[in-house]
Design a protein that fits this description.
The structure is a homodimer of 403-residue chains. Chain A has helices spanning 16-19, 53-66, 68-72, 79-91, 107-118, 133-141, 158-170, 194-207, 230-233, 261-270, 278-288, 292-318, 344-353, 383-402; strands at 39-40, 101-104, 124-129, 145-152, 155-156, 177-180, 210-214, 238-243, 255-258, 324-325, 333-337, 356-357, 359-360, 373-377. By secondary structure, chain A is α/β, with parallel strands linked by helices. The first copy, chain A, has 2 domains: 7-52 and 294-402, Alpha-Beta Complex (Aspartate Aminotransferase, domain 1); 70-290, 3-Layer(aba) Sandwich (Aspartate Aminotransferase, domain 2). Chain A is globular. The N and C termini of chain A lie far apart (54 Å). Chains A and B meet through helix 1, helix 2, helix 3, helix 5 and helix 10 of A and helix 1, helix 2, helix 3, helix 5 and helix 10 of B.
C-alpha cells in the first residue's frame, strides 16, 4: 500500500484509551544476540520431547470422524471441557458452578482482561517481586500503579504485604487486586505453606482486595502434595487462573479462570473472540479424558524432577560457593541470587560469549530490582543440555572473577 | 461455592466501562421452541458435509510429526499463514505489507475489537440495515449510536448514506466508521457493483470516515467474478475483514483484518490473547497450501450454487406470488420481503408449528425494522431438507391466508 497524505488523519479516529498507549515498560531489555550454539536457559517453554503427539493425533482423528459438524462448524466451546475442569478443581477442594468457570486462550488472555474489567488507569495493584514478566508487563502497559511486595523462599512476604495494604488504606486507596503465584512461583520456584495461604486470604478479605491466584505450575510437583489452593480456602476473594500449557502443551492455547460469578461474567463479556472454538476445546477434552491427563502429568513430573535435580547437582559442582539459589519442589525454574561482584550486566554478555543464556532478574520486576538475580529454566532443554549449559555458566562466573 | 455476604462488594471493584454493561439489545428475541424435526433455515452455518475432514486429519498428522516443538510450544502465529493471506489478497489487487495484516479468532473478534480501539461511548457509527446480527449486537452493546442506512438489491443506498454523512457533518459529528458487507451481503445476499463501490470509498474519503469492509462471503460466487474489493479501490480509508470460516470451517476460528498499519497495530495491542496460537495457524496454512484451498472453494461454490437454485426453484413453486425475494449470485442467503398480511410475528409461530424455522428480519436491524422480512439460509441443511423446509414454509403462508 502506498502511504497516503490523509493517513495521518486516522490517528484522530482512535478511542481515548488507545491514544496514549506508546509507553515502553521498564522490563524491556534488548538481549545480546545468541548464536545457534547458545544453550538458552532463559525461557520457560515446555519440553517438546514430552508433548503427547500420538495421543493428540489420535484425538483429532476420532474427534473429526465422530463429531465433525460440531467440531468444525459454528459452535460454543465444548461443555465437556468445562465439566473436566470442574471435576479436576472439585478433586482439589474447589467445587464450582458452571457460571464460575471461563475458558480462555491461555492464561495470558485472562491476565490481559483483568485490568480491562477491574481497573481504571492509575489504579493501584499489588504484584510479587520478582514475578511472571508477562503479567508485570501487561499490567504496566495498562497504566496501572504497581506496588511491589517481595517474594521469599516461602512466597509473598506477608508482613510487607500487610503494611502495604495498611499504608494504602491510610491514603484512602484500596488496591484493585493482588497478583500472586503461590505454588512453584515464577521465577523463584517458591512454595507458600498453608499457614501463609490462610493469612494471605484473610488479609485480602480484611482489606477487600481480590487475589489473582495464578496456578500455572500447580500440578507440577516433584514430591509431596501441595497445600490447599487459595481459592479452596476462601472462594469469595480469589480469582483462580489455571492452564493446560504446562500439563498438555502451550500451543493448544487453553486456560481457565474460576471464581466469583460476577467477575467471570464480565471476563466473558470482554473476551473479544467469544467462546473458545469448538475444535480446540474438543481436542483438549478428548485427549485429557479417562484419566489420561493424570497419567501424563505423572510422567511429566518424573521427567522434570530429574532435569531439576541435574541442574541443582551441576550448580553445586560448578558455581562459586557464594552463589545462593533455591531448591524448588516443582515447576520449571531455579532462581539464583548472584554475589555483588557478579551483576547480571557483567554476567550475561560473558555467558552468551560462552554459549549459554538465562533470564535476567530485572525483567521480572516493575521497579528496576533484580540486578543480581537470574532465572534458569530446566524445563525446555534436554537434560544433557541443561547440564552443559550450567557448566558453561559456572565456568563463566569463575572466569569473571579471575579476570 | 457458597455465596458470601461480602460478594456484593465485588461490584465496587469493576472498572467504569464494565459498570454499565447490562443493557439488552433491541435485536434480542426469544424464538419459540423448535422440536427435533424442525428444519432450521435460520442459521448461516457452513454445510458440514463439505468440511474437508480427511485433509484436516492429514494436515494435523504431518504438522505434529514434522514441527512438533513449534506447533505445540509457546510460539507466535505461523508466519506462513500471514504469507498465504498476503498472497491471496495480492491476487485480488490488494498488495499488503506484513504490518498491514492481523490474524484473529474469527471475524467476530475483529468486529468486537473495533469499538474498543475506534470509539468512545456515544460515538456515531453507520451500519447497513439489515446487517449481520452479530455485528449490530456487538456495536449496540458497546454503547454506540447506530445510524441505519438501507440496503437495496445493489447494496448500501448511497444517496441515503451521503445525506446521512452530510446531516451528521452539519451537526459537527464525524461518524467513526461505516460497517458494510458489499459482496453477498448478510442477510440480503446483495452485491454492490463497481461504480457504487467507487462512489462509496470516495464518500468515505470525503467525510474522513473509515469503512469496515466485511468480506465473509467474498470467495463464494456462483457465476461471474466479483467487482474489486473496496480496499483495492482505496487502501487509505478501508479496513478489510476476511475469514476462513466459510471457505474452510468456522470451527478453526481463523480470520484476518488488513488495512492501515496504524489500525492493525492497535487491534493487535487490544487482542487480549496475543497472537493466534501456533497450532491452529499451522493447521490452516498446512491444509490450505499448494492451491488446495482454491480447488476446495470451487467445490463449495458448485455445491452452494446448487442448493441456492433448489431453494429459489422451490420458493417459485410454493410461495404466494406476492412474496418478493432476491436471487443471490453467491453467499449463503435468500432474503424475503413478506406481504403486509404476513408479518414475521404471525408467520414464525405457524412455521415452527409446521416444522420449519427462519431468521426474523427484526434481528438484523438496530432500530426495530424488519417486521416483514426473513432470512433463509441454504448453506447448512442438505439440499433435500432445504427443499422440504421451503415447501413447509410456503404451505404455512397459504394456510395463514386461508385461516
Amino acid at each position: 500500500m502506498i502511504p497516503s497524505p490523509v493517513t495521518a488523519d486516522v490517528q484522530h479516529l482512535f478511542s481515548k484509551i488507545v491514544q496514549h498507549d506508546e509507553s515502553i515498560s521498564p522490563m524491556h531489555l534488548d538481549l545480546p544476540n545468541e548464536t545457534h550454539d547458545t544453550i538458552s536457559l532463559a525461557y520457560g517453554d515446555a519440553d517438546p520431547a514430552l508433548f503427547p503427539v500420538d495421543a493428540l493425533i489420535a484425538a483429532v482423528d476420532s474427534m473429526l470422524t465422530g463429531n465433525l459438524d460440531i467440531s468444525l462448524n459454528y459452535a460454543p466451546a465444548y461443555a465437556g471441557l468445562v465439566a473436566l475442569v470442574q471435576a479436576r478443581m472439585a478433586r482439589q477442594n474447589v467445587p464450582l458452578a458452571r457460571n464460575e468457570v471461563l475458558l480462555a486462550n491461555g492464561s495470558s488472555q485472562i491476565l490481559s482482561l483483568l485490568p480491562q474489567i477491574l481497573c481504571n488507569p492509575g489504579d493501584v495493584i499489588i504484584v510479587e517481586g520478582p514475578s511472571f514478566l508477562g503479567a508485570v508487563e501487561t499490567f504496566f502497559n495498562c497504566g496501572l500503579t504497581i506496588e511491589t511486595v517481595p517474594v521469599r523462599d516461602d512466597g509473598l512476604d506477608l508482613d510487607i504485604l500487610e503494611s502495604t495494604l495498611a499504608r494504602l488504606a491510610t491514603q484512602g486507596i484500596r488496591a484493585k487486586f493482588i497478583y500472586t503465584i503461590p505454588t512453584f512461583q515464577n521465577p523463584t520456584g517458591s512454595l507458600m505453606p498453608l499457614a501463609n495461604r490462610q493469612r494471605l486470604v484473610a488479609l485480602a478479605a480484611q482489606y477487600g482486595v481480590i487475589i489473582i491466584e495464578d496456578d500455572a505450575y500447580g500440578d507440577l510437583h516433584f514430591e509431596n502434595p501441595i497445600p490447599l489452593k487459595l481459592i479452596a480456602i476462601d472462594p469469595t476473594w480469589v480469582l483462580y487462573v489455571g492452564t493446560f500449557s504446562k500439563i498438555l502443551a502451550p500451543g493448544v492455547r487453553m486456560a481457565w479462570a474460576c471464581g466469583p460469578a460476577e467477575i467471570i461474567k464480565r471476563l466473558n463479556r470482554f473476551k473479544t473472540e467469544g467462546s473458545n472454538g469448538p475444535f480446540m476445546t474438543r481436542l483438549v477434552a478428548q485427549v485429557s479424558a479417562d484419566g489420561w491427563l493424570d497419567q501424563h502429568i505423572a510422567i511429566l513430573n518424573a521427567h522434570y524432577a530429574q532435569k531439576c535435580q541435574a541442574m541443582l547437582d551441576t550448580i553445586a559442582q560448578t558455581f562459586p560457593s557464594d552463589v545462593r539459589y533455591n531448591r524448588p519442589l516443582g515447576g520449571f525454574f531455579v532462581y539464583v541470587y548472584l554475589p555483588n561482584d557478579l551483576p547480571v550486566s557483567r554476567l550475561l554478555p560473558a555467558a552468551i560469549a560462552n554459549g549459554v543464556s538465562f533470564l535476567p532478574g530485572t525483567t521480572c520486576y516493575a521497579d528496576g530490582q533484580g540486578t543480581h538475580e537470574i532465572r534458569l529454566a530446566f524445563s525446555f532443554q534436554s537434560q544433557e543440555k541443561v547440564v552443559e549449559g550450567i557448566r558453561r555458566l559456572g565456568a563463566t562466573m569463575h572466569q569473571l572473577r579471575q579476570a
